[in-house]
Amino acid sequence: MSGSLPFYQKNHRHYDRGYRNKETASKMSQYQSSSSSRYFAGSSTSATSSSRGLRVSSHSGLEESRLSPIPKRTKPTYLAVDKENQIIGYVIPIFRGSQEFATGFSDTEESRVRDMARRDLFSSGLEMERSELISRKEAMRESADRICLNKRIHDQEEHSKRMNEDSLMHPPEFVIKPRSHTVWEKQCVRLHCTVTGWPNPRVVWYKNNVAIESIANPGKYKLESRYSVHSLDINRCDFDDTAQYHVSAMNSKGELSAFASVVVKRFKGEVDEYMPAPRRASTKDGPVSEYGVTFQTHIVDKFGVSFGREGETMSLGCTVVIYPSLHRYQPEVQWYKDGVLLSPSKWYQMHWSGDRATLTLAHLNKEDEGLYTLRVTTKSGYETYSSYVFVRDSDAEMEGAPGAPLDVRCLDANKDYIIVTWKQPAVDGGHSILGYFVDRCEVGTNHWIQCNDTPVKFARFPVTGLVEGRSYVFRVRAINNSGMSHPSRVSEPVAAMDPGDRARLRGTSAPWTGQIIVTEEEPAEGIVPGRPLELQVTEATKNYVVLSWKPPGEKGLEGVRYYVEKCVSGTDTWQRVNTEIPVKSPRFALFDLAEGKSYSFRVRCCNPAGVGEPSDPTEATTVGDKLDIPSAPSKVVPIRNTDTSVVVSWVASSDAKELVGYYIEGSIVGSNVWEPCNNKPVNVTRFICHGLMTGEKYVFRVRAVNAAGLSGFSPESEPVEVKAAIASPAPPFGISVLECVRDSMVLAWKQPSFIGGADISGYFVDYREVVDGVPGKWHEANIKAVSERAYRVSDLMENRKYQFQVRAANMAGVGIPSLPSDTFPCKEWTIAVPGPPHDLQVREVRNDSLVLLWKPPVYQGRDAVNGFYIDIKEEDAPVEAWRSVNNKATEKTYMKIKNLKEGEVFVFRVRAQNKAGVGKTSEVTEPVSAVTKPGTNEISVAVDDDGIISLNFECCDLTPDSKFVWSKNYEEITDASRLTMETKGNKSKAVFNTPAEEDIGIYSCIVTHTDGASSSYDLSEQELKRLLEVSHDHKFPIIPLKSELAVELLEKGRVRFWLQAEKISADGKVDYVFNENLISQGEKYKMNFDKSTGVIEMIMESLTPADEGTFTFRLKDGKATNQSSLVLIGDVFKGLQKESEFQMKEWVRKQGPHFIEYLSYEVTPECCVLLKCKVGNVKKETSALWYKDGQEIKADEHLGFTEGVLKLEIAQISKKDSGVYEVVLKDDRGKDTSKLNLTDQGFKDLMNEVFSFIANSSTPLKITSTDEGIRLYTFVNFYNDLLQVTWHYKDSAISFSDRIKSGVVGEQLWLQITEPTEKDTGKYAIEFHDGKGGLRRTVELAGQAFDDAFAEFQRLKSAAIAEKGRARVAGGLPDVVTIQEGKALNLTCNISGDPVPKVTWLKNDREITSDDHCILKFESGKFASFTITAVNTSDTGKYSILVKNKYGTESGDFTVSVFIPEEAAGKKK
Hints:
Elements: H1 7-10, H2 17-39, H3 52-60, E1 79-81, E2 87-93, H4 107-122, H5 125-163, H6 165-168, E3 170-176, E4 181-184, E5 189-198, E6 202-207, E7 210-211, E8 221-226, E9 229-234, E10 243-251, E11 254-265, E12 279-280, E13 282-283, E14 286-287, E15 296-300, E16 306-309, E17 314-323, E18 332-337, E19 340-341, E20 348-352, E21 356-361, E22 370-378, E23 381-392, E24 406-411, E25 417-423, E26 435-442, E27 448-450, E28 460-464, E29 471-480, E30 483-484, E31 494-495, H7 499-506, E32 516-519, E33 533-540, E34 544-550, E35 561-568, E36 575-576, E37 587-591, E38 598-607, E39 610-614, E40 621-622, E41 634-642, E42 645-651, E43 659-668, E44 675-676, E45 686-689, E46 697-706, E47 709-710, E48 720-721, E49 733-740, E50 745-750, E51 762-771, E52 774-775, E53 779-780, E54 790-793, E55 801-810, E56 813-814, E57 824-825, E58 838-843, E59 850-855, E60 867-874, E61 883-884, E62 894-897, E63 905-914, E64 917-921, E65 928-929, E66 940-943, E67 949-954, E68 964-968, E69 971-972, E70 979-984, E71 987-992, E72 1001-1007, E73 1014-1019, ...
Parallel strand pairs: 2-32, 4-11, 16-23, 99-106
Antiparallel strand pairs: 1-2, 3-5, 5-9, 6-7, 6-10, 8-9, 10-11, 12-23, 13-14, 15-17, 17-21, 18-19, 18-22, 20-21, 22-23, 24-25, 25-28, 26-27, 26-29, 29-30, 29-31, 33-34, 34-37, 35-36, 35-38, 38-39, 38-40, 41-42, 42-45, 43-44, 43-46, 46-47, 46-48, 49-50, 50-54, 51-52, 51-53, 51-55, 55-56, 55-57, ...
């Protein structure tokens, strides 16, 4: 028989069942011999004979019996399994029939068995059954006796061991070793093991060979040891917990270790990559490493985003630099794909050359698409680098054929049945995929067989008709109307065999759980099997139905097969499906069922004894796809990422079942050609599409996929231009002070070196006070961003010291703050000369010249600034090398500096002067190299055929965000009346509208977002005259106009553009131009030209956003020409469009719900603001929605809708409530909106009304006293930060100073008079401003009221002076000083007190005096110093300083400890 086997089956491990049983028996024999002493009743040789029957019985089920006279049947298993086919123990039958237990009986028992066998041939069935029953009872009784005897022997041996301790001692042994774990971040993990040994072993846990101490890491590690079970709990794992752990057990007999690894992974997120960030093991003093070596790992020469095609070979490589470089040191180099560790295989080949790691993908398939990560691990941590690999479909053999399916897998493998699944391709070739063909190939051959005759659309197919014990691989092909795709990558090999047999063969040895399950099984000869159990339909499509069931629970399972029967619902006729061959597996797939019909199914068991009863029928099942194709995703949003990639996000498909993932497609706007962005489905809702063309605009769409098919496409996204995303700017630098007064300082700073790819929209300034060198908390100086690089910080304290920091902001957000500035004192400048100029900028750098710009100083000095001096020096030159560029002061704020040395690096500064002299120097500019950059162009002047004079500038280094900014005399041109700027591509042109003498000046152009591209042109008086002459020669006669081009609105919102020429002939022509594009008569434009009157008009039905721009009427009559333009952009266009739309919609509005009274506000007595409006023509279905600045306001208790009035209450209004409020009414008839602008003046008017209520709630002014003076105050019911008040003294506004201040505390408004005198008596008033008449509260501070307040002030002041003048030790002394013998000790502390305190020094509570060894000083009445010139051991002790004056006494203590270096070294050893 074996000789006739095919060659490929001779080397096949599963082709014969006996082969498997022999291998299993060998493993069981080894396992039993090593563990029989632990798991069976006895271990001594004396128990061998008595337990032989039990032991042989356990073997008899694992090897083929040679004594059985009956034909061989299917062999039973003696491994107990759970519901998931996991082995949990052994099943030891008590009786398996006389044939299999012959070797376990005595001679008498054997003869009785033979007699019973002979009687079976002649006796009746009743006698045979009675004999078997007696034999069974006797065998069970004898087995029980043997088990009891084995237990007694085992107990005696255990007692003998306890009595003889020496023989009991043995080294540690791991009964259960710790196992490795892979967990997610922030999860907890437990490593545990069971250790035996005598004496009891000492167990220690290690992490990367470092002992773990739970006390040193409380809450992180927990160690437990109970009854020889030892565990290590790691709480809330992070990346630092990824390591190799081992546990060591040691006693007097020896030591043993066991190892386990813990890998902590991170969930894949929006910007996260699959692998964790590089880890750095560090401590307070620096990196920690093993063996005294700290490795620094750098990954350079990295592979980028890669693109390949199916069938190609691709190599990914990185150069790894490890410092220090140790000879023969081998780091751990690992490759991951989508977070899964890769192992060498025929698909992946890994190589490490010592400094370069390479991963070779031998044969690309779409399954290889994903994020690849290189991880290099050393003793000091690890570094990772990741990049994406995209795999495109190979060229189809037939044009229009679909791409190959991917990710073919095998599920639910049984003896003759396997389910094959796959994923649909992203490319369908332009035609819908009709279905898929599944092919199989037996391992060891190259013969592929098609499994289905007709294509299946469902991406899952049951393959039947397999040969039990043989292994197969599968592949899938897609087909459409154009042809067949390439086959997919083959699946992993899978064997057609029972899942239980596969589970037993998966391990190398039998597992043990400490549990022996003893069962009794009757012999099964001649017994018809029972009903199958739990029959159900596990899968139903229009092509097939899959049934599954469980074997019957009673006897008769050996050699069991199954018949499947079906019945059309509504009938009683059952038809057998598999009439010829019964199936072996408890699974079955039915084909050729009528789609749409309902069927019931049942199953029968059969064996050689007959066919059993049918199972319970299933519920009626309708043939059809149960899994629906997912709905299309929605809301596809593309976001700029890099100059070749875009981040695409979308909203997931709703109610999608068994979703496989998503395919993304992109198309260049206008091309209508869609290309797949991924060829492997992604199961997230955010994906980075690479390989796009820089500068092009793309649209994207997404569709979902599951086993049922691909969904429809989502709506197309908005177009997005492929260019680098913007980022927040870098921090500014160079903070300096421009002016300082008593309570404010003006700061200046330099623009960040990196602005993030977008223009800076403003800056934010923070400040903090510095007291005795200790900085305080940061405070915001401005809430609204400032656009200038200078800002006045107010509300500072005079003679205090401050530090500042600045943050820049752009449309991407606010950047990180700058480094804290130097410490500046807030002290008023009184110098006569000016302060420093600021905001120095360098432009138009050439080989021998450049232009320097600056802004005048904020602090003018005694007189106005009348000139500036510019200083220059080489960057590396000393300070003495500064020299002046101009000997005569210039009044301009710019200068062109000439005669520079080419290639030299210079720095500049500027000084301002007035009549008093030259002031402070500005901050020095950044170093500038006098070199003309390659590609630099200059501004050129041109006059066209129409006589138009223009300045032209071209930039070769233009970026997508660059803008041309034109200036006159280096001030940006904002008035378009003189110049019109036009930009096309990398060229910009400034056209003179009507050149005249007022246009004389220096014109410059700078290109933003470049490396300083700029140029200038000096238009002098002589040059202007020359250009006007040239222009006059180029011009043609013009057609005179009575009126220029104008616009007006007609009824129903129609827009009329018109002009009138004075005279025009019948040959005159008109070109209608919009944004330099000719427009003609059509549905949108209606043109009329009355040549008799010269009236030219164009009428538009309505205006759309696309109509924003410049409208021009160009007239031509022979040689005479003229044109008139009307610019409708910005607010002008929006106003016109709004008015047009209003007139169009007004009549439509009143057909549906509309506003009778538009949105307005009302202030309640509680200072709450109530927004309300009145509506009409509403019905039950009408909805009212509130919005603020475009964001919907959710309904809560502040919203109301009663009697046709909508209300919104705003309590405690503040500046953040400023905005545009809107109410939208809508139903099926239409909608209407009402807006209320509460910004700028509207918000001011509202707040004035609020202030009026606050003023009316104020209390009369009252008088109180403090230790500083007299305070006047009033209370209001509600205070608002925007409230403005003015304090008056004798009907004149009070000028506040350090002596007279005002402020607010809670709802109290107060005026503080410091050190009051008789001159301060009089009438005081507080005035509340509400934009109208306001309100005053007055009080008379005179007579008895002043006397009482002044007396109380004197009392409080005396008490404060006494407390302030008390002697104090302000600080500076440490608690303990440890110093080496022979060193000098110098300590200084601050002393305060008035009068100056007396200072006394004590050592060990005894007064000491100053001498040559111990020098004591008290200087300036503030600083006390303690100096020991050379300390020795006698200086050790407790020292004190005692300060005393008439107001009190205070002391400060410190301890001095002197050590000898030799003693310290000895203790360390």
